[in-house]
Amino acid sequence: MKKVIVTGGAGFIGSNFVHYVVNHHPEVHITVLDKLTYAGNRANLAKLPAERVKLVVGDIADAKLVDSLAKDVDTVVHYAAESHNDNSLEDPYPFVQTNLIGTYTLIEACRKYDVRFHHVSTDEVYGDLPLREDLPGKGIGVGEKFTDQAPYNPSSPYSSTKAGSDLLVKAWVRSFGLRATISNCSNNYGPYQHIEKFIPRQITNILSGIRPKLYGDGKNVRDWIHTNDHSSGVWTILTKGKIGETYLIGADGEEDNKTVLALILKLMGEAPDAFDHVNNRAGHDLRYAIDSTKLREELGWTPQFINFRDGLKATIKWYKNNRTWWEAKKKEVEENYAKNGQ
Ligand code: NAD
Ligand code: DAU
Predict the structure, then answer these.
(1) What is the pLDDT of residue 135?
(2) I need a surface site. Which of 10, 33, 151, 184 has the fewest CB within 10 A?
(3) What is the per-residue pLDDT for 232?
């Protein structure tokens, strides 16, 4: 792997992956293809050397542009997506366009030029799991965690379009011999995450003098992984993964939203009850949990950032130290949430 396109490389997880590759793999040159939607930000790549990372501003659904870039590279790592569930409930169209047509456009170009393709996807394609308290035997046994054998059962326009994009990739592997792998990862946290998402929203609320907002009763569980561990997982699959396989990436980080918020409040010196309960999300998935045994045992991957408290502390510090990165967006994000009573 020498010449790599990273789609969505100016977004949260994509830009962290670009940083990871620049820091660990000096032989790789990266072209970031990113439309710079509301979620993309040039500043996420600003500190990287121009001779290693080039940004092309464009749409992954632009077949002509994608063709012109794909013919000169050996690998495409595909992060670009509309990624926020709440937005998909307001307007699904961009999700269908980018997540489905965009992915289709990329895999067509990769099949034409026989480019290695890695598709970055989400655990949400599997739907949700019952809360552990509702499982027989308190969560021991069948259905405890997702594996790559779990049936697809997405809940939202976001997760259904991601599920559709996974299925396109699987079909292109089987019918056209596309050299592709897929990863489905759980909830990421870390620097450069857009402030519409749960953890940065609450941190920047507190930093702005706004009370944090918890959907519903806060019992919903997410399986948190530091974005650097996601990056090393994707790199491991790219370099050691078997073509046609799906690998689940997760770091055993299950926490309910109430507990995460309580930790943020504590780490930021706020009272435990200094938050508001707000309207729940429609169709709100109850619990996600990843069984990453396949990635760990077959490819030898291990997550490094497994102390959630420390990771959260560092993330809070990042948002404190980088106010100019998020402050201008705060008012609009909160006004949009307020329209839905959130
Ligand atoms: P993000 O919203 O922060 O970033 C998405 C990036 O894609 C932005 O830079 C945006 O400008 C770009 N983009 C959007 N539409 C585009 C288009 N049509 N053409 C080119 N670029 C476009 O998203 P994220 O949270 O960094 O997620 C990245 C990927 O990882 C997504 O595929 C998402 O489904 C997946 N994923 C996310 C998580 C998570 O916790 N955030 C977990 C598992 C998987
Ligand atoms: O599981 C992987 C997925 O994780 C990714 O595929 C998505 O791209 C990513 O956005 C994330 O989806 P979630 O919907 O789980 O993330 P979000 O940050 O929106 O919400 C996390 C949990 O917190 C969820 O249960 C809803 C809740 N929530 C969210 C917000 C924004 C709140 O309680 N309050 C909030 O203000």
Answers:
(1) 78
(2) 151
(3) 98
